[in-house]
Amino acid sequence: MIKHIVCFKLKDNSLAECEKAKEVLLSMKGNVPELRGITVGIDFLHSERSYDLILEVLLDDDAALESYQNDPYHCSVVKKHMHAVRESCVAVDYVVE
Question: What fold characterizes domain 2-95?
Answer without folding.
Answer: Alpha-Beta Plaits (3.30.70)
